[in-house]
Amino acid sequence: LNQWDANKTVAEQYPAWTRTISQTERGVAFQFGKLRSTWNIMQSGSASYRIDRTLPSRTTLDEQGLGYVSEASLTLAAKGQQDIYTLQSYVHSRADADRFEQSRQALLADPASHFDDSIRRWEDYLARGLSNQGIPESERRIAVKAMETLNGNWRSPAGAILHDGVTPSNTARWFDGVWAWDSWKHAYAMAHFNPEVAKNNVRAMYDYQIQADDPVRPQDAGMVIDAVFYNKLADRGGDGGNWNERDTKPPLSAWAIWEIYSATQDKAFIAEMYPKIQAYHDWWYRARDNNRNGIIEYGATRHVEHNDEFGNITFKVQYPTGAPAGLDLSSCTNEGDGWYGCAGMALYQQVLSVGGYADMDIGAQHGAGWESGMDNAARFGFIEPDQLKRYADKTYGGDMAKARQDWNVAFFENHEDDGSLIGFSIDQESVELNAFLAKEKRILADMAELLGKPDEASRYREGANQLAGYINSCLFDEASGFYYDRQIAQGDLPDANGCVGKLLTARGRGPEGWSPLWAEVADKEKAARVREVMLNAQEFNTKVPLGTAALTNPAYDPDIYWRGRVWLDQFYFGVKGLENYGYRSDAQQLVNKLFANAEGLAGSGPIRENYNPETGAMQGASNFSWSSAHLYMLYRNFLKTEG
Q: What is the share, in percent, of the chain residues with pLDDT greater than 70?
């Protein structure tokens, strides 16, 4: 069963699942039988939950054995007192229980000292991470809440997760694992108050960096996969669901690792991670540069969700009234309701060229969007049907065929030298991916110098400068004063500036346009133009500013994940980018608007995944870690005073 039936109890949904309650010497123990329902409940067969008390108690079970009442009594002298402690613990397996047993006994033997130790740890977090000088209490409260959220979402190793990790949210159903760029953001922030967890959160992802002898995808050696969970997928010998190798995430690990070094001066950590980052950096150029011009595209791996067993790209296309004349879909599977399941790059390109379809679904398109971290952003061709109709009316006098061409995405196959398929690239050079890679090259250069590798440092700095030159020459639009992705086609010849294809201005503006400012690769005069767009109330300067699509974007919707909502990572990159180019007062004004208008931040409400740009309403998952990480970064960068 993969769907939870809200009308059924647990017993009705899983009548064969066993659960037992028993009385222990100090409390109650719950044992859970084996149940492997991928999207609902995953139990090993030896998982257990215990309640241990320092006060002796008596427990009575109900007739079904699934409910209980515990009673206790104590006698106090007049004005006397007694401290009572309760220890609650959950373990996934018998092996986990055995490992935890010594700690459990120690906690119960002297709970008061362990309680005091916990208080001291929190006092240390606050002493490391906060400043009381000149900070309004409401804003200091936000910083404390951010730290609490990050520490609260910290989980110790279990199952396939081999190091401590910080999950995106332990109160949201799908987020009980660790994602790559989430982890980099968490680590960057936690470097300043919980550095050992910061290091381990990085390691938790790099534990599964693909190696050249990997049995599943050796072609992706060096890649860090998107998401790691307690249970692997079937091709890794598991039965999990959210484990994801369809893509990676943007290259921000070096940024986080260098921040950890800056906070701790742990040179050994840099020595440990430097070759791993190098392998990951090199993977991008081997697996995501279709025309080998050194400018990288987002894409998707060779994967059952992206291609058939022969490596052909797979897609679904819908023709409710039948396929256009001359389009042969005989090789496709008729899936009903006008949908056809097809495979093959030539057929896919023909479908795009002929047009006339009502809808299309391409696994690789989702993979490329996920790889950017901006899952359904407009620049990857995602737009609602009614929005596309309005775009057609405004731009092409209602011609839907011409309108759709502006939003179609093509894909390229990327191959090894021997011709074997590595994966797929989307048909656009990404401005923020290449800005991130330029920044990573400069950080790798700093690491190389620290480790006594001057030749490598020089090579990385030269590469960063070349990449910055391309970004400014080819990914900036003088007419609109903003940076965009560049759409490319196979066989495109470079122009006089070395640029190929065309800028994707038709798909509107998003936060990718200020990424060169954050990465410090933008020319000053171009940064000034971007600033104008960011501060324009008709573009990004909304009640909660710097949303994930400008108000003028044809695909803008304040309720769609990455097409309007304000995500705090992109907000941070934006204001930090402004500060990098001397516009700190502008950045401070935007920060003040965020803190004043994002619902629940200053009160007792949880930190949320994202916020409505027009109303400030909370949206998405609660107790969200990367929002917390970037709020803490904003606190350190724009609010905290040293001394």
A: 98
CA dist 541 and 17 (Å) reads 53
Other CB atoms within a 10 A radius of the CB of residue 627 amount to 31
In one-letter notation, the amino acid at residue 419 is: G
DSSP at 493:
P
Which of 375, 477, 492, 614 is the catalytic position?
375
For residue 523, indicate whether it is catalytic: no
Q: What is the dihedral of CA 276, 471, 261, 628, to 10 degrees?
A: -100
Q: Give the amino acid at 210.
A: I
Q: What percent of the chain has pLDDT over 90?
A: 88
pLDDT tens readout for residues 514-531: 999 999 999 999 999 999
pTM of the model: 0.95
Distances in Å between the alpha carbon of 574 and those of 289, 384, 515, 611?
27, 26, 7, 16
Which one of the listed residues 52, 245, 259, 609 is annotated catalytic? 609
Residue 643: its pLDDT value, please?
Answer: 39
The mean pLDDT value of the chain amounts to 94
Distances (CA, A) of 423 to 214, 291, 455, 482: 16, 14, 32, 30
CA distance 49 to 32: 8
Spatial neighbors of 200 by CB under 8 A, at least 6 apart, are 163, 164, 165
Distance CA 103, CA 139 (A): 37
Q: Which long-range contacts (CB under 8 A, 24 or more apart) does 448-455 make?
A: 448/274, 450/261, 450/267, 450/270, 451/267, 451/270, 451/271, 451/274
Q: How far is CA 538 from CA 134, 547, 596, in A?
A: 34, 12, 20
Residue in 262, 367, 96, 259 with CA at minimum distance from that of residue 629? 259
SS (H, E, C) 504-557: CHHHCCCHHHHHHHHCCCCCHHHHHHHHHHHHCCCCCCCCCCCCCCCCCCCCCC
Residue type (1 letter), 44: S
Is 375 annotated in the active site?
Answer: yes
Give yes or no for a contact between 620 and 604, defined as CB atoms under 8 angstroms apart. no
Neighbours of 284 (CB within 10 A): 22
Contact 341, 335 (CB under 8 A): yes
Displacement of CA 234 from its chain's centroid (Å):
23
Number of H-type helices and E-type strands within the chain? 19, 25
Number of CB atoms found within 10 A of residue 535's CB: 17
Q: Roughly what angle, to the nearest 10 degrees, separates helices 267-287 and 195-206?
A: 30
What is the chain's Cα-based Rg?
A: 27
Tally of CB atoms within 10 A around 594: 24
Q: Residue 13, Cβ neighbours under 10 Å: how many?
A: 17
Residue 228's H or E segment, with its range, is strand 227-228
User: What is the phi/psi pair of residue 177, to 5°?
Assistant: -150, -165
Strand boundaries in 140-231, DSSP class E: 154-155, 165-166, 178-179, 227-228
* Two tokens, residue 71: 């009673």
β-sheet bridge partners, residue 413? 424
Secondary structure of residue 316 in the 3-state scheme: strand
- Beta strands in 511-627, from DSSP E residues, in sequence order: 608-611, 618-622
Distances (CA, A) of 384 to 222, 318, 404: 36, 15, 11
Tell me the per-residue pLDDT of 283-341, one tens digit each, with 9 for 90 and over.
Answer: 999 999 999 999 999 999 999 999 999 999 999 999 999 999 989 999 999 999 999 99
**Residue 141 in contact with residue 633, Cβ under 8 Å?**
no
